[in-house]
Design brief:
By secondary structure, the protein is an alpha+beta fold. Helices cover 33% and strands 26% of the residues. A hairpin with a 2-residue loop joins strand 1 and strand 2.
Length: 202
Amino acid sequence: MGGMKVCSWMIPNVVTIGPDAGIREALEVMKKYSIRHLPVVDNDEFVGLVTLGDLKQAILASMLEQLKVNDVMIREPYTTSPDTTLESAAMVIYEKNIGCLPVLDGKELVGIITVNDILKAFIDIMGVLKAGSRIDVVLKRIPGSFDEVISIIEAKGGFVISVGMSINGENPIHHFRVSGGNIAAIAQELRDLGYRKVEFIE
């Protein structure tokens, strides 16, 4: 599933800066391109990362002309590769509480993926911005219940755009994004068949 790899969602042709550049220059580059993360590259090799947050915390106005990017950059930031799954990259960003992951092929910087890129990817994958409705349901604990729900949706003219799941105690809730069909009738039939916690949003 190539669409679930970092390479499909990262920003290529990344704006970078050299380690000997001044802090003022780094700030100007960030402002010019409306970015908060600036990879540091030396002789085509990735050597670090500087963020807007780092600059704001580390810099006093009187020191602005003295400091260089090399003085404040993160020297060994968390990184990822183009073939890493989107889920793995998202987990690193979440667990480490960071805003981005430079994407490396060996030591070469080939892209960057940020929190916003990952959020956009999952919104697209889940079809959140596509016109449609959502049906939430706790599946029966018997084989074939997932297929039964799909069949009911399709029998009433619906088309399943995507399916997600959230864990709530012992009862995972499946979220079916549906295009077309009679959503209220689908929900009622699911209830009649014994499915629990059936809710829908049109």
